[in-house]
């Protein structure tokens, strides 16, 4: 049901790091549209393709991402990212100049920036979204403190910072979203998921495999799965995380592989699956928590944030996690079958982000 607001034009911009930032912005976009406001999206490549498929009626402005290059081997991941910091800073300066022009030419009246650092403006409300106030690196201590200081420097330029998690000990992001000190104007907006739970859904799959994340590691995991799943007597659906290129293939009589599913299709597939296998990307974790699904996590090699989240959430009993270099699908399914899973039950509203959006639109 639409709420009455003075109609505003809001710019939404996801970070081009995997697809998670684009997918977790989907419920925010729907909430803005439901309030009777207009949304303009800025993205490129597969992020633009995913959002265009979900919102074919919306304008998508081309805006280059940070275009980070990733290492083939996991142990080079952190060093490869650090080498590209000058390129990231150049991209931030560009998007700051780009925004100044777009606000004028398109009449933008508010910005929601999902982890992009240069999209702040002195004359309109601008929100920065991040679950990583503390940025994990393979180098630890000093490096993380320096990056946190730089992170906060940019966050303070925004009107507000939204953390998609819950305050307190019962949370999904651990130290990443709950550091000792928070930037000003920070608020927790709860689980940010486009999916809706539903009771009584018939189980169609023993396993749903969600392959995602940056290349080349997305393809590396896909290859491992395809090599091993053919030998197992299970009903499975593999979603390869490649929007914009519709394709499906029957791998075996009981295993179907598709390139991409829209939000509604993926929601149904998750509800119809006994177990999910995925990366420990934060958006996927929020989806799993909201739908109360059991999952096997395979963190992207070398991506310190995902490694930390896998270990942290396994320790809490929410999910089972194992590294990619020790991955064996049959053994992982056996281990998960005996793992003492705990439900991520939370006393707070799983859709409290809607209130944050309403307050933002009233600014």
Write a brief structural summary.
This protein has 363 residues and is of the alpha/beta class.
Can you give a write-up of this model?
This protein has 363 residues and is α/β, with parallel strands linked by helices. Helix content is 36%, strand content 17%. It is built from twelve helices and 14 strands. The strands form two sheets. A seven-stranded parallel β-sheet has the order 3-2-1-4-5-6-7. It has a seven-stranded mixed β-sheet with strand order 10-11-9-8-12-13-14, with helices on both faces. Helix 10 links the parallel strand 13 and strand 14. The model has no long low-confidence stretch (mean pLDDT 90).
- Regions with pLDDT < 50 over 5+ consecutive residues? none
CATH class assignment of the largest domain: Alpha Beta
What is the assigned CATH homologous superfamily of the largest domain?
Glycogen Phosphorylase B
CATH topology name of the largest domain, in short, is Rossmann fold
Largest β-sheet summary: 7 strands, parallel
- What's the number of structural domains? 2
Strands, count: 14
Principal-axis shape equals globular
Quaternary class: single chain
């Amino acid at each position: 049901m639409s709420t009455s607001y003075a109609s505003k034009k809001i710019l939404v911009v996801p970070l081009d790091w995997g697809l998670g930032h684009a997918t977790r912005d989907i419920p925010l976009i729907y909430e803005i549209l439901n309030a009777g406001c207009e949304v303009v999206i800025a993205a490129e490549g597969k992020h633009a393709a995913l959002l265009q498929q979900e919102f074919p009626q919306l304008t998508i402005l081309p805006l280059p991402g940070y275009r980070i290059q990733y290492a083939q081997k996991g142990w080079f991941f952190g060093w490869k990212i650090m080498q590209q910091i000058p390129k990231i800073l150049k991209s931030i300066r560009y998007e700051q100049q780009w925004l100044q022009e777009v606000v004028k030419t398109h009449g933008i009246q508010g910005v929601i920036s999902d982890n992009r650092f240069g999209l702040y403006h002195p004359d309109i409300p601008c929100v920065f979204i991040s679950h990583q106030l503390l940025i994990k690196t393979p180098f630890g201590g000093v490096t993380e403190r320096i990056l946190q200081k730089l992170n906060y420097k940019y966050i303070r330029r925004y009107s507000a910072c939204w953390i998609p998690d819950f305050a307190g000990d019962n949370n999904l992001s651990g130290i990443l979203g709950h550091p000792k000190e928070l930037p000003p104007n920070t608020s927790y907006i709860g689980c940010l998921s486009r999916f809706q739970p539903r009771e009584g859904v018939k189980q169609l799959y023993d396993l749903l495999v969600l392959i995602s994340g940056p290349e080349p590691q997305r393809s590396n995991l896909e290859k491992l799965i395809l090599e091993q799943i053919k030998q197992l007597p299970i009903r499975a659906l593999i979603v390869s995380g490649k929007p914009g290129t519709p394709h499906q293939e029957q791998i075996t009589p009981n295993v179907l592989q598709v390139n991409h599913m829209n939000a509604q299709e993926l929601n149904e597939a998750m509800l119809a699956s006994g177990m999910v296998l995925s990366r420990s990307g934060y958006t996927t974790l929020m989806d799993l928590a909201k739908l109360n699904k059991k999952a096997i996590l395979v963190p992207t090699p070398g991506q310190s944030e995902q490694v930390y989240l896998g270990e942290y959430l396994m320790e809490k009993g929410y999910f089972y996690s194992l590294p990619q270099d020790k991955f064996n699908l049959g053994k992982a399914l056996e281990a998960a079958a005996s793992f003492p899973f705990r439900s991520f039950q939370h006393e707070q509203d799983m859709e409290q982000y809607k209130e944050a959006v309403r307050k933002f639109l009233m600014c």
